């Protein structure tokens, strides 16, 4: 059987920016490639959407993607779903899709996530600590998956779930978590799972979440990082390998990577200075951009990280690169990150601001604050903080009171 595998399409990413259609365009290429390669089954490893509650615009794009599959109808096929004692049957007459939810789609247990909506719309089968079985041409594929959950709890959840391969089947696992060994030392992502913690005895353990595809641990661990179909975080590693999908052949366990035909190119450059002046920095950035753009078409994404030290008296905020941004506006999507060392408390303040805020949403900051404040009290994990937070965010005070008094009663 031919199984198309991809992940992290992040539909809805780049809303109101020059990149607003990119997630859809590149996800469409991924779906089209899966069809073109005549995949019998499609596996998605989470973060189909960029947001837990997608906009109507994002929903329209997502349904358009699944319509591509419906254009090629065939025989009626069955997927069996099993979670503990619960079983369900899903029927489809187009290429079946099995998916987990990613961290971007995560919602507490009081709420339905976007993948459950897609499931009830007949687009896919959603699994979380569950399995989906698909049989075709006397071959049996068992897919077990754990949706993306907050990293702090991931290792415990993985151990508790503890999936086991089934005899006489091709056994696959879908995950959506960070893996310790994959995080660069200067990265702000966190992980509680190591390669050694991954489920054993499977033909392939597939992980989404990390946006750079990697087959680095394929031979010894059967571990595949699918990578995303769009660049969202602009990490250095994402500049090294293009975006694409994998085709897994269940019979000979072979794996093939196919690059998306039309994707936006991403270039990551680091420029280092010692006691740099504004003029030197401007000149170097401009020279680098001219060099990159001399042989580049259709507006690449360029990130330039400026590092090192500035001449005395000069600070990051003094480096004005607006003229350069303007000059290259039509040729590239340019992101310049001024990251020069600064003296004294200003630098510390800046660092503090970055670690405190980072790229977090207001909701994520609010959740962190609640967690931090609770940790200082004697609450001792008496209730599920994320669940209570989500309920509060939705204004469901009655349920929160109910939950808390229930705990208190015990
Ligand atoms: Mn993602």
Would you kindly provide a written description of the structure presented here, covering whatever features stand out?
The chain is an alpha/beta fold and 410 residues long. The protein folds into three domains: 2-259, Purple Acid Phosphatase, chain A, domain 2, CATH 3.60.21; 266-350, no CATH class; 362-409, no CATH class. Helix content is 30%, strand content 23%. It has eleven helices and 16 strands. The protein has helices at residues 22-36, 56-70, 114-120, 151-161, 218-221, 278-293, 322-327, 344-357, 362-376, 385-393, 397-409, and strands at residues 2-6, 41-44, 77-83, 86-92, 97-99, 125-126, 130-136, 139-145, 170-175, 204-207, 223-225, 244-249, 254-259, 266-276, 301-310, 333-338. The protein has a seven-stranded mixed sheet. It has a six-stranded mixed sheet with strand order 6-5-2-1-12-13, with helices on one face. The protein has a three-stranded parallel sheet with strand order 14-15-16, with helices on one face. Strand 14 (266-276), helix 6 and strand 15 (301-310) form a beta-alpha-beta unit. The protein is globular and about 70 Å long. The N and C termini lie far apart (52 Å). 32% of the residues are buried. The mean pLDDT is 90. The structure holds manganese (II) ion. The site of manganese (II) ion has 6 residues, from loops.
